[in-house]
Amino acid sequence: MKGVGGRIFRPRADGFSCPPPVGGGLKVSVGIFAKIGSDFNQNTPLFMDIIQAIKNFVEEECKKPTSKYGYDPFPFHFVQVVKYAEELANRLGGDKEVISIAAWLHDIGSIIYGRENHHSTGAEIAEKKLKELNYPSDKVGLIKKCILNHRGSQQNNRESIEEQIVAEADVLSNFDNIAGIFKAAFVYEKMNEGEAKDSVRKKLENKWNQLRFEDSKRIIKPKYEAAMLLLQ
Q1: Which regions of the chain carry the CATH code 1.10.3210.10?
Q2: Can you tell me whether residue 8 is helix, strand or coil?
Q3: What would the DSSP string read from start to end of 31-54?
Q4: Long-range CB contact pairs, 227-231, < 8 A, 24+
Q5: Considering the domain 45-230 in this protein, what is its CATH number?
Q6: Along the 232 residues of the chain, how does pLDDT read in single tens digits?
């Protein structure tokens, strides 16, 4: 968070502090801003800054030549997951800050190390990055759980609404990026046209069946029905 003269405030256990400006020191108490978390006003600059910092980190990793899937996952997947995660949080509750951060970071392991075990590698990357930003340890733990359990194969381990929201947002994003699913079928799985069509249809049917929230189904039902009609 930028303070006087563009200096950066970093959260600390004893408050928010910044390098002293010319002519004197400056220390701002945590109490002035209120604590980070569910009691914190989520429209304040501090809330937005941690989200923006994580968003920037993910985008930078996607831009690197070392990204396993190039830049496309950022605009066509990450952005969509965050959109749905925040919409579900507004409807269903949960810690919106945790949900937003976890949504941005849920596939970071796939970008840096590849898809295999990306839920585990992603959780490790998230923990390291959030600790660098001095993010509260209890919230880091919940974000790690969201990332560890966002995959369909991990659904039985979900214990919180935050975990389920991030997982369902990941599912919903598929219906906004059907072209990307076809790309994976053609480019990475080397399917022909007929095989790709059947594969995409089955994948979308499977994604629909993974949804547990009625709100999720209401949000995506028109796109699901349209996809099934086109792929019949």
Answers
A1: 45-230
A2: strand
A3: HHH--SSTTS-TTSHHHHHHHHHH
A4: 227/175, 227/178, 227/201, 228/201, 228/204, 231/197, 231/200, 231/201, 231/204
A5: 1.10.3210.10
A6: 444 344 333 443 434 334 444 444 333 333 323 333 444 444 444 555 999 999 999 999 999 999 999 999 999 999 999 999 999 999 999 999 999 999 999 999 999 999 888 999 999 999 999 999 999 999 999 999 999 999 877 656 888 999 999 999 999 999 999 999 999 999 989 999 999 999 999 999 999 999 999 999 999 999 999 999 999 9
**Which pair of tokens denotes residue 84?**
């749905």
